[in-house]
């Protein structure tokens, strides 16, 4: 697994502030991806502050008067983003299928691909609340 910058690596491997189930599922997806496609996934986001969330979703903030809820905001953090702009559609589909095969029936667990459209291509993975 690769990280866009070292701060993300520190966040990801933080024992107390990142949900260990998130680490486990992300590591498994990276392992699967390497076996199938011969390269690593790139982590682009782990923890997020309310200020950062407000900047990412200004319309939600204007409409609701609060930041958009996100598992990135939780402590321990329950979400991670992966870069998808370098991935082919069939590679994204393979990740999605693998996640759905093993984790889709767990409450609150999710994989979302490019949910903000082409302008912000990424894959969001989250685990449920404990
Ligand atoms: Zn996300």
In short:
By secondary structure, the chain is α+β, with helices and mostly antiparallel strands. Helices cover 42% and strands 15% of the residues.
What does this structure look like?
The structure is a single chain. This protein has 130 residues and is an alpha+beta fold. It has a single domain, classed as 2-Layer Sandwich (Muramoyl-pentapeptide Carboxypeptidase, domain 2), CATH 3.30.1380. Helix content is 42%, strand content 15%. It has helices at residues 6-12, 20-37, 50-56, 58-64, 89-103, and strands at 2-3, 42-45, 79-83, 110-113, 122-126. Strands 1-2-3-5-4 form a five-stranded mixed beta sheet. Strand 4 and strand 5 form a beta hairpin. The chain is globular. The two termini are 25 Å apart. The protein binds zinc ion. Zinc ion is lined by residues 45, 72, 79, 81, 124. Residues 45, 72, 79, 81, 124 line the site of zinc ion.
Helix content: 40-55%
How many domain modules? 1
Strand content: 15-25%
Largest sheet: 5 strands, mixed
Give me the Rg, rounded. Answer: 14 Å
Q: List the total number of helices.
A: 5
The low-pLDDT segments are none
CATH class category: Alpha Beta
Order of helices and strands: EHHEHHEHEE
- At CATH level 3, the topology is Muramoyl-pentapeptide Carboxypeptidase, domain 2
Structural class determined from secondary elements: alpha+beta
**Ligands present:** zinc ion
Q: Got a strand count?
A: 5
Mean of all residue-level pLDDT scores: 93
Distance, first to last CA: 25 Å
With strands numbered from the N-terminus, the spatial order across the biggest sheet is: 1-2-3-5-4
Can you tell me the CATH architecture? 2-Layer Sandwich
């Amino acid at each position: 697994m690769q990280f866009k910058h070292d701060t993300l690596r520190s966040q990801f491997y933080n024992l107390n502030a990142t949900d260990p189930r998130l680490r486990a599922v992300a590591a498994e997806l990276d392992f699967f991806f390497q076996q199938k496609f011969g390269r690593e996934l790139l982590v682009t986001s782990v923890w997020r502050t309310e200020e950062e969330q407000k900047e990412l979703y200004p319309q939600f903030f204007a409409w609701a008067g609060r930041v958009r809820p996100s598992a990135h905001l939780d402590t321990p953090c329950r979400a991670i983003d992966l870069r998808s702009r370098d991935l082919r559609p069939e590679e994204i589909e393979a990740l999605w299928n693998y996640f759905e095969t093993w984790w889709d029936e767990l409450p609150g667990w999710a994989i979302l691909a490019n949910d903000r459209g082409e302008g912000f291509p990424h894959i969001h993975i989250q685990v449920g609340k404990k």
